[in-house]
Amino acid sequence: xxxxxxxxxxxxxxxxxMECASGDRCADGACRPPACTPSLFYCDHEVARVCDxxxxxxxxxxxxxMHARCVVGPASATCVPSECAPLTTFCAPxxxxxxxxxxxxxxxxxxxxxxxxxxxxxxxxxxxxxxRCALLEANDRSTLGCRFVAAALAAGSPTVVIANPQTxxxxxxxxxxxxxxxxxxxxxxxxxxILAIDAAPAxxxxxxxxxxxxxxxxxxxxxxxxxxxxxDGLALHPEHxxxxxxxxxxxxxxxxxxxxxxxxxxxxxxxxTAAGTPYSGTLARGQALTVSASDLIxxxxxxxxxxxxxxxxxxxxxxxxxxxxxxxxxxxxxSCTAVARDAATVTSSLNGTSTIAAGATLDLSGPExxxxxxxxxxxxxxxxxxxxAPVEQWRSAxxxxxxxxxxxLAAATQPGLVDVGAGTLAVVAGPTTGWASGSTTLAAAAPxxxxxxxxxxxxxxxxxxxxxxxxxxxxxx
Length: 477
Hints:
The chain is an all-beta fold. The protein has three domains: 8-80, no CATH class; 89-130, no CATH class; 139-467, no CATH class. 2% of the residues lie in helices and 51% in strands. It contains one helix and 42 strands. The strands form ten sheets. Strands 20, 23, 24, 25, 26, 27, 28 and 29 form an eight-stranded antiparallel sheet that branches. Strands 15, 16, 17, 18, 19, 21 and 22 form a seven-stranded antiparallel sheet that branches. Strands 30, 31, 32, 33, 34 and 35 form a six-stranded antiparallel sheet that branches. The radius of gyration is 34 Å and the shape is elongated.
């Protein structure tokens, strides 16, 4: 060789054959114009550019299309897979920490550890550490919650039953009465416990305002019920799921009391009977407007801030869902009363079609599927006064907390099995298409689950009727 490589072509024997034009380079047996600076490599933003030794071939790779970063090494520029988006924050896959991505996107560092010394289920979600109560209250409205307000009117040593559906964490639950010392109980995972709650007498007639509300606070999401000795069980709705507008359901016969319980100071509350009689007051947190009369069915309750509404009647007690959570599609398992918010046409799989005026009631015998052209509130009338959840609000998991041997009545939109803890309940096809039902005996509290949404009632055969968990989605504003 005479030092003329790069300016001459070479024949098959390796001899120089001709001189390349000025500026061209000899590469792969041919004269080629220069494409880049020989052996130069660099990153053009996220594009890797690498020039060969002859300067006639440049390899260009867009790292961005490969979800990678361009990195200059000692011998070349290459695409290195990114770990994260530069300078963003994100949760570790196991939810234990909040991470921040480095400027080059190739590494990250921990900016917050989701420590959980109080066993609240702290985990990283979104851009920070949150406990299970905060996550629930930000995303869900159901009978599952961490903060409740409740008032017990009847005598008979009322108690609050707490069911903890968490399988890995205990629940520390504190009940603070209107007066006196707070009481705390620890509920084991998947377990239940009982707390005494103070009862106050209802006014003989008319309305009164008094501090009746007990506050119930848990470290993790739980279900809560009030039980009266020899009376109905009342399912509590958590504070984050409460409303400002309610429709009252009760049985037509006998005395009735409606308790509107405030969760915030200076809450304006008005109860208006179906006949148009108003009762109103301004409440502090924990105070209740209690109205006693015989015509409270289909009454409307409106408030300036979220309130809990409880109904006490000769047939039992119930927590009323907000008027915006009523339904148009129900499975009625036994005798019930439907209360109409607006005029509606009601179609029953058992009794055909009928019309119902706003504020009127309709007796249902069950089992039957009931569908309406306008929102209804349906309450169980067979030894209880619990709300029957519409199909739109059914869930695929819940908890049944009977204090003793009870019967579980289940409804589902299709046949299947409901896991009741110690066994399974077969839900079989009913007399019409589109729903199914079944029953079994429960000896104690039990978690419930199924492959598809369902709804259950729990009864001791005489008076206690308690629904398992159901949603409170705003479906009919």
